[in-house]
Design a protein that fits this description.
The complex is a heterodimer of chains A (about 110) and B (about 110). Chain A has about 110 residues and is mostly beta strands. In chain A, about 0% of the residues lie in helices and about 50% in strands. In chain A, strands 2, 4, 5, 9, 10 and 11 form a six-stranded mixed β-sheet that branches. Chain A has a five-stranded antiparallel β-sheet with strand order 1-3-8-7-6, with no helix packed on it. Chain B is mainly β and about 110 residues long. Classes of the chains: A mainly beta (about 110), B mainly beta (about 110).
């Protein structure tokens, strides 16, 4: 059972377009993390959201945590080929066991 | 600054063979975890440790053993490899606190069992 559902699974867009990917759950999380993974590498942490309704910006990336702390979104403005990768959300619904969503694979064409 | 180091990077095993995947971190992190990553399934937790001498099972522990004798090292042992264990394995470490899920990952070990 996947407690963190990510959508879409795959996204292919042109450079300059905007996009949003989603991470949803029926469970409440004290925090959620977003990671980006490139081929042949381990995931790298982008951001952690902690407070319900929180919005964090990282250059062209905007992360939002839902008011009920059950969902999160990642919006990329004016995507660039360097944004290509697998985007993963993660959280620990209780204790120390961190779970990951299946990821959104993004491909940005030049 | 090495961070989390995994060895080997690639490995091919025959069914029934055993081996140990090595993981070492130099950040003095108390928490360490092992994940496997399969297409379309994200990362699934195999085993984790909250400190030296303490380990616990994750979502998919069957067929794997771990030990944590030091803070730095967290090896993963495959007792009798099966083709279903073909996967990419990642080790991660993090420090305790409110945001203990902020993990640092190694580069992974790509394992093929034939």
């Amino acid at each position: 059972t996947q407690l963190l559902e990510q959508s879409p699974q795959f996204l292919s867009i042109q450079e300059g377009e905007n996009l949003t990917v989603y991470c949803n759950s029926s469970s409440v999380f004290s925090s959620l993390q977003w990671y980006r993974q490139e081929p042949g590498e381990g995931p790298v942490l982008l951001v952690t959201v902690v407070t319900g309704g929180e919005v964090k910006k990282l250059k062209r990336l905007t992360f939002q945590f839902g008011d009920a702390r059950k969902d999160s979104s990642l919006h990329i403005t004016a995507a660039q080929p360097g944004d290509t990768g697998l985007y993963l959300c993660a959280g620990a619904p209780g204790g120390f066991k961190t779970i990951f969503g299946a990821g959104t694979r993004l491909f940005v064409k030049a | 600054n090495a961070g989390v180091t995994q060895t080997p990077k690639f490995q091919v095993l025959k069914t029934g063979q055993s081996m140990t995947l090595q993981c070492a971190q130099d950040m003095n992190h108390e928490y360490m975890s092992w994940y496997r990553q399969d297409p379309g399934m994200g990362l699934r937790l195999i085993h984790y440790s909250v400190g030296a001498g303490i380990t616990d099972q994750g979502e998919v522990p069957n067929g794997y053993n771990v030990s944590r004798s030091t803070t730095e090292d967290f090896p993963l042992r495959l007792l009798s490899a099966a083709p279903s264990q073909t996967s990419v394995y990642f080790c991660a470490s993090s420090s305790p606190g409110l945001l203990n899920t902020e993990a640092f990952f190694g580069q992974g070990t790509r394992l093929t069992v034939v």
